[in-house]
Specification:
heterodimer; A: 219 residues; mainly alpha; MetI-like fold; 10 helices; 0% strand; B: 260 residues; alpha/beta; six-stranded mixed β-sheet; 38% helix; globular; disordered N terminus
Chain lengths: 219, 260
């Protein structure tokens, strides 16, 4: 059971898992960050209250967040094929991972931006700053430490989902754990994949927190 | 001196007519009219909850008004088409809670407005910021973060942050209310100096001694309306209205009687 190919396979699994996780998280932020920003600015106490826009975004985020990941993954298979040309493998898994992480990230961003003191937003307004300038130069920079903590949470959550994607042919450590541990009862390999997953989570969480603390000038 | 200044500088910078403001069903400002002349220092006093902070916030659009009009140099700024980004650059504001950007240095706090909003060059903004910081005794603090400053230093930096945009008028909203007593003086001295150099200001404060020293006119607000407008000496020694007298009496203490 233990030979060179096992080691290679595990390494490849780590690589695939990281690939799925990081690429999905980046895409999910491209969608989730603007939604999170609009959730804050269009809210009733936001800098540009827009009740309808807020309601629509709020409902979309809640709806997509309530769909269990495995159901979403299966439900959007046609869309996944349309985007990536296939429904199995790591690249295909990126599509459902991105779509399920985006609303989650929108909420993380929303809560980070809401932590920014309303007083400093008014201070920026009283300088004559535009709403765009307030978002770009005050809200996002002042929320940076909190956004980074959110980023670490997002990456580790996506990693967990990516292991689930492995269960249905998504590749990565999840696929290895399923194929060897679940179907062939090779508990050793399954344990190793779990150890790898724990290590990756630790590293991402640790890096995220470290940067966040070093950037925070409030205390 | 107050009369002298008002007499010479007769042009109206800020014209407030029949201002009305309510939060839901609660009327906060009933019918408020006031002219602020160029170079004039108006001190607004009144009991807590009388609407004086709301009044100030209406002047730069942080609160929407429900009636009346405000004109800045003759231009209506209470209409629906008001470009508040432009107007607010002319009406600076300093807040009770300083509201410096906590993750920026003092210098970054000061240059954000001139560079990003007014599109002035970074070099010029930094140079002006340093000059102003020196003027308020904070020359050494340009690279400090707000948390490293005392309350008084934060508020002086916040005043500079408003000044650097070259506003026509500056609004001060109870800027010493959150400060420890020993730091109040250093902030008030800065404002006094600004008054001497001819800045137009509307100041909401609870510091009566300071009001008396800095004001050209004292405006007493109670229950959402202006009850009395007088030169400071007259207001503090011989108020015209009963309500103002009552308010001022709250700051007086009778001597304890049991002298041996």
């Amino acid at each position: 059971m233990w030979d060179e190919s096992t080691g290679l396979m595990l390494l490849q699994g780590v690589g695939e898992s990281l690939y799925m996780t990081l690429v999905s998280t980046v895409f999910a932020y491209l969608i989730g960050l603007p939604i999170g920003v609009f959730l804050v600015t269009s809210a009733k106490d936001g800098i540009r209250p827009r009740a309808l826009l807020f309601k629509i975004l709020d409902v979309i985020v809640n709806l997509t967040r309530s769909i269990p990941f495995l159901i979403l993954l299966v439900a959007i298979l046609p869309f996944t094929r349309l985007v990536t040309g296939t429904t199995i493998g790591s690249t295909a898994a990126i599509v459902p991972l991105t779509l399920s992480a985006a609303p989650f990230i929108a909420r993380l961003v929303e809560s980070s931006l809401k932590e920014v003191d309303a007083g400093i937003v008014e201070a920026a307004q009283s300088m004559g700053a535009s709403n765009f300038q307030i978002v770009r130069k005050v809200l996002l920079p002042e929320a940076k430490p909190s956004l980074l903590v959110g980023g670490a949470i997002a990456v580790t959550t996506v990693l967990g989902y990516s292991a689930m994607a492995g269960f249905v042919g998504g590749g990565g450590l999840g696929a290895i754990a399923t194929n060897y541990g679940y179907y062939r009862f090779q508990n050793g390999i399954m344990l190793i994949t779990v150890v790898f997953l724990v290590l990756i989570v630790q590293i991402f969480q640790g890096i995220g927190m470290k940067i966040a603390i070093s950037l925070d000038r409030r205390k | 001196m107050a009369e002298l200044r008002c007499g010479i500088l007769s042009d109206v910078l800020l014209e407030i007519k029949h201002l009305k403001k309510s939060f839901g069903d609660t009327e906060v400002l009933r019918d408020l009219s006031l002219d602020v002349h160029t170079g004039e220092v108006i001190v607004v006093i009144g009991p807590s909850g009388c609407g004086k902070s709301t009044f100030l916030r209406c002047l730069n659009g942080l609160e929407k008004v429900q009636g009346g009009e405000i004109r800045l140099k003759g231009n209506l700024i209470t209409g629906s088409k008001t470009d508040w980004q432009k107007v607010r650059q002319q009406i600076g504001m300093v807040f009770q809670s300083y509201d410096l950007f906590p993750n920026m240095t003092v210098l970054q706090n000061l240059t954000l407005g001139p560079v990003k909003v007014q599109k002035r060059s970074r070099e010029e903004a930094a140079e002006t910021a340093r000059k102003l910081l020196a003027r308020v005794g904070l020359a050494e603090k340009e690279n400090a973060f707000p948390r490293e400053l005392s309350g008084g230093q934060k508020q002086r930096a916040a005043i500079v942050r408003a000044l650097i945009l070259n506003p026509e008028i500056i609004l001060f909203d109870e800027v010493t209310a959150a400060l420890d007593p020993e730091m109040v003086r250093e902030v008030l001295d800065v404002i006094l100096e600004l008054a001497k150099s001819g800045s137009t200001m509307v100041i909401v404060t609870h510091e009566m001694q300071f009001a008396r020293a800095v004001a050209d006119r004292v405006v007493f607000i109670d229950g959402g309306e202006i009850v009395e407008t007088s030169p400071p000496e007259e207001f503090f020694t011989n108020p015209k209205t009963e309500r103002a007298r009552k308010f001022l009496n709250m700051f007086q203490f009778d001597k304890r009687k049991e002298e041996p």
